[in-house]
Write a structure and sequence with these properties.
- The chain has about 80 residues and is mainly beta.
- The chain has one domain.
- Helix content is about 10%, strand content about 40%.
- The chain is built from one helix and five strands; from the N terminus they run E-E-E-E-H-E.
- Strands 4-3-2-1-5 form a five-stranded antiparallel β-sheet, with helices on one face.
- Strand 1 and strand 2 form a beta hairpin.
- The longest helix is centred in the C-terminal third of the chain and has 7 residues.
Length: about 80
C-alpha cells in the first residue's frame, strides 16, 4: 500500500497550483468616491466566482474578466 503524506489527499489529485485569492470589484460613483459592486474569489485554476452587492452570483473565466464585464476596477484583497 502506498504511503500518503496527507491522509485527506489522494495521489490522483495533486495540490492546486496556487492559493485562492479574494477580490472586490469597485466602480467610481463620484470623483474620488468608489463603491463595491461585488466580492469574489479566484480559484487556483483561474476561474472566479462573485457575489454582487446589488445583483446575485456570477461565475467568470477570471477575476479580470469579471471586472471587464461588470465595468469595474479589480482590487485584490489578499
Amino acid at each position: 500500500m502506498e504511503h500518503l503524506t496527507d491522509p485527506f489527499r489522494s495521489p490522483d489529485y495533486p495540490s492546486p497550483p496556487g492559493p485562492v485569492r479574494a477580490f472586490a470589484l469597485v466602480q467610481e460613483i463620484d470623483e474620488g468616491e468608489t463603491e463595491v459592486v461585488a466580492y469574489g474569489l479566484e480559484l487556483p485554476t483561474g476561474i472566479a466566482a462573485t457575489v454582487g452587492v446589488v445583483q446575485g452570483f456570477g461565475r467568470w473565466q477570471s477575476a479580470r474578466n469579471a471586472a471587464k464585464r461588470l465595468h469595474s476596477d479589480l482590487v485584490w484583497l489578499t
